[in-house]
Amino acid sequence: xxxxxxxxxxxxxxxxxxxxxxxxxxxxxxxxxxxxxxxxxxxxxxxxxxxxxxxxxxxxxxxxxxxxxxxxxxxxxxxxxxxxxxxxxxxxxxxxxxxxxxxxxxxxxxxxxxxxxxxxxxxxxxxxxxxxxxxxxxxxxxxxxxxxxxxxxxxxxxxxxxxxxxxxxxxxxxxxxxxxxxxxxxxxxxxxxxxxxxxxxxxxxxxxxxxxxxxxxxxxxxxxxxxxxxxxxxxxxxxxxxxxxxxxxxxxxxxxxxxxxxxxxxxxxxxxxxxxxxxxxxxxxxxxxxxxxxxxxxxxxxxxxxxxxxxxxxxxxxxxxxxxxxxx
Length: 328
What we know:
By secondary structure, this protein is an alpha/beta fold. It contains 9 helices and 17 strands. It has 3 domains: 2-59, Alpha-Beta Plaits, CATH 3.30.70.2580; 70-136, CATH 3.30.300.110; 158-326, 3-Layer(aba) Sandwich (Rossmann fold), CATH 3.40.50.150. The strands form 4 sheets. It has a 7-stranded mixed β-sheet with strand order 13-12-11-14-15-17-16. One of its GO terms (molecular function) is tRNA methyltransferase activity.
């Protein structure tokens, strides 16, 4: 029978499936189908699917019976997939162990199961993990045709931001100069280089930069990507006026680096500023900070105000896209 499905290119399938799962929209009674390079992902409600996705009617077969963690537990556990790692966020260690055992017993493919053991902490934004199954916290994550190797014990990474990263990378044009100021293992920088940009990517975390270089090689973009270990404020003089596009994905504190961003910006530069703000005024503080840093030299145009996701009660993770145009 025909059911509503999200139709996406195959290489975007896992990131899209995860996004739909975050909205609790997956139809588990019908199979995901691959036809001529496209995935048809069944959803329970076409009206609730985010507008950036293409919803079509498709004759999706009934799902073959598989044993899921829900079947074993009698309730639906919450977890996140990152490569072959399953990530839990359970306060009760006994419940976490119960879910991990059910994952192993089920047909869910996972090499490692971990439970969050701390909040994100420190300048490098890493966290502690309880490893419940397996012995490695390293994995290969795939999103929108890009492969990224990383170790969650040593670097920060969120698979939930895949759609947002893709939104930004789709704007990148061949030959652009893109500067990723807080690059991590390269989830913005590597696909931007794949899009044909010349990319400089900087990060304080030495391990993340090692993975960034490996990921550039893994995706055949080493000639277009320069990875730098260090504080972007110490690097800026070398790239004064170089950037056509700046990515500032360091929520809570990116605004503190806007003076550096202005030094890096060329005569015309698009800035993607990420922030955490209260729902009453999610974009105002960021725009105020941009104006304070740039309005003496640049005209400022707001291109998009994007709510990325809910961060905490009454707080949003947001992105403010602005264009800086230098005055004559």
